[in-house]
Design brief:
It is a single chain. This protein has 22 helices and 28 strands. With about 650 residues, it is of the alpha+beta class. About 35% of the residues are buried. α10 packs antiparallel against α20, α12 runs antiparallel to α18 and α13 packs across α18. About 35% of the residues lie in helices and about 25% in strands.
Length: about 650
């Protein structure tokens, strides 16, 4: 018996020892070899990864008007199981329905919630698109009924991108969408070009938590708050000018039944883009033609060549050109005037004013091919302008040695060369701003969320092309084109406007289509010190007669209407108003008594603001009635104002 006991004891001891060695081996294996695997498993059970992303930056116009911005959106929901136990909840629901926060009929909705509550359901959505303002208003209602955070609650806060007047700004501001990542990013326009500034930063933090409840443990510690928001973009675009340009372009687009219409307005002295507009019948194409389409400009190109010839002293303003019967043959190709009445001897001024094709060929002949090509390069025709907009098109440059005999002749009047509208208006600006080619730009500056400017775009002069004397002479001749030439339909009484129209033949598959045109107008004002330059283009305009398709009819009226409205919005006084002010302050001495006399100005057609400005500082009392412009005045124009104490003005 004793021997058996000892044997059993040894066996048990051996088993225990063996188990101990296995346990020790397993502990060593876990501690030394498999420790990382077990740590990872524990972390997965305990830790929660919290990802944080900053809010996308906003896009503003030059006056701070939000054009693109991100807002928080919330889902308003109800817990039916708890709702039916509350006496106040139905009252709150009724108020939410009455105030349109919930867009359902009250009684059917109440019945549906009661039914879900009896079935012990805990969720029903009331509205999934509640913004921050609405959320605050709803929370105030819940607070009043003392049920805030109980049975009517907010869930799933999310960010959404909103755009101001997308019909006006879509092709400029652009939009966001999914590309290669799960996060939305800029895919078009300014949203794409300035993506790295707008997108903001992302961060990720591992927080020890009760995983099932998503509650952070006290041991997690407090994380430091970092501003992850994107930067804000401030455009050079003026919302007032944008509205005016867009409105006038839309009217003319519909009136001419064009296939496409686009326009751009700039400050010719800086390169700031102030407004753009774009309309198209084919909605599938989303390219912005102002920056991404190359077109034959037609006659709006002529001032560039005339200015270059004046600069090189190859011609003068009153140099004569014999255009014969209005035709010229070059390399077995006959070039004709658009008007059969244009014949005989004309001056450089008339070439521009009447838009003579033959005259331009004769001016072009004064250049060698190399000289002509050099000026095209100076005007920026062979390179991108560098405007801050994605995918700007670059003109294909053909080597001079490859030009055929007709190339220079057709380019002299704007055919046989394709440029983008932004290239064209940039080059034209140099003709009328004193001869400087500026880089165009759309973004003025970029700020962080504290308003600190972190980047500013400044006017960039690329090169000096023309002398001021040449530029001044070009402005004068272009003003005559509005007063007496092809741009007459852009004339506005008492305002000095310069401009040039264009009517380029439409080409398809390398061949020109008969009676289909790209009609355009380039205009600037005021003439003496241009503040605004505008290019408006209409693709394949239709009309009852052929003349209705030309630039002078299809496009020029837009320039005139824009000038009328911009001068009012920007308080640019007309020439007439300025003269009236001088007259109203001018003193005449009476021969009889040597007393100073003032003359009454003619106020008809002026606004109340202009009348008040004229009599500013005077002791004369004004009694103005009605609205609109001056219809009658109690004292006739040019009458003496001596001893006059009161003048009655009636507006209509």
């Amino acid at each position: 018996m004793k021997n058996n006991f000892i044997l059993r004891s040894f066996i048990v001891s051996d088993v225990i020892l063996f188990c101990f060695f296995i346990l020790m081996f397993r502990m060593i294996q876990i501690q030394l070899f498999d420790s990382e695997n077990y740590k990872e498993a524990i972390n997965k059970q305990v830790n929660i990864e919290r990802k944080e992303g900053g809010q996308r930056g906003n896009i503003y116009d030059s006056k701070g008007k939000g054009l693109a911005y991100s807002i928080n959106m919330y889902e308003l929901s109800v817990d039916p199981k708890r709702f039916i136990k509350s006496e106040e909840a139905p009252k709150v629901l009724k108020e939410l329905v009455n105030k349109k926060y919930v867009k359902e009929n009250y009684k059917p909705l109440l019945n549906a919630i009661n039914k879900l509550g009896k079935d012990e359901r805990i969720y029903k959505r009331l509205n999934r698109n509640i913004d921050d303002v609405e959320k605050k208003e709803i929370e105030d209602i819940l607070e009043n009924y003392k049920i805030k955070g109980k049975n009517i609650i907010f869930l799933n806060g999310r960010k959404e991108r909103r755009y101001y007047k997308p019909d006006q700004y879509f092709f400029l501001v652009g939009n966001i969408g999914f590309k290669k990542t799960s996060e939305k990013e800029g895919i078009f326009g300014i949203e794409l070009f300035y993506e790295k500034y707008l997108k903001g930063d992302k961060s990720s933090k591992i927080v020890p938590s009760i995983r099932s409840l998503g509650i952070g443990l006290p041991t997690a510690g407090a994380g430091s708050k970092v501003n992850l928001d994107g930067m804000d973009i401030h455009l050079t675009i003026d919302n007032d000018l944008q509205y005016i340009l867009n409105d006038e372009m839309e009217k003319q687009f519909k009136k001419t039944n064009s296939e496409e219409a686009h326009a751009i307005m700039m400050d010719p002295n800086t390169g700031k883009i102030l407004a753009t507009s774009f309309f198209r019948k084919n909605k599938k194409n989303v390219a912005n033609p102002v920056f991404q389409s190359q077109l034959e400009p037609g006659s709006i190109f002529k001032p560039l060549i005339i200015a270059a010839a004046l600069q090189e002293k190859k011609i003068k303003r009153y140099t004569n050109f014999d255009i014969g019967d209005g035709t010229i043959t070059k390399y077995k190709h006959t070039i004709r005037e658009s008007s059969r009445s244009m014949k005989g001897i004309i001056t450089t001024e008339e070439v521009l004013k009447k838009s003579s094709n033959v005259g331009m060929v004769l001016i072009g002949d004064k250049f060698t091919n190399e000289e002509f090509d050099k000026y095209l390069e100076k005007y920026g025709m062979y390179d991108r302008t560098g405007v801050d907009y994605p995918y700007e098109k670059k003109t294909r440059r053909e080597a001079v040695k490859s030009w055929n005999g007709l190339k220079k002749s057709t380019m002299s009047f704007g055919q046989g060369i394709a440029v983008t509208p932004v290239q064209m208006i940039t080059a034209f600006s140099s003709v009328i701003n004193g001869g400087i080619l500026y880089k165009p730009y759309i973004v003025d500056h970029i700020t962080d969320k504290d308003g600190m400017i972190i980047r500013r775009n400044l006017p960039t002069a690329k090169q000096k092309i023309l002398d001021e004397v040449v530029s001044k002479e070009m402005r004068s001749m272009l003003e005559l084109a509005v007063l007496e030439g092809t741009v007459k339909k852009a004339h506005v009484d008492d305002y000095r406007i310069g401009g040039k129209t264009g009517t380029a033949q439409y080409s398809e598959n390398g061949r020109y289509v008969k009676h289909e045109y790209l009609s355009s107008v380039m205009g600037f004002f005021p003439v003496d010190k241009p503040q605004y330059i505008l290019l408006a283009m209409f693709f394949k305009p239709q009309g009852d007669v052929l003349y209705d398709k030309f630039g002078g009819t299809a496009a020029a009226p837009v320039l005139g209407e824009v000038v009328k409205r911009v001068t009012k919005v920007k308080n640019i006084h007309s020439q007439k108003v300025e003269n009236i002010k001088i007259t109203s302050k001018k003193t005449l001495r009476s021969i009889e008594n040597n007393e100073e006399l003032f003359l009454m100005p003619d106020l008809k057609g002026l606004s109340a603001r202009e009348v008040i400005e004229i009599f500013k500082g005077s002791s004369i009392e004004l009694e103005i009635t009605g609205t609109g412009v001056v219809l009658t005045q109690s004292l006739e124009a040019h009458k003496e104002l001596l001893n006059v104490k009161k003048i009655k003005i009636k507006l209509n």
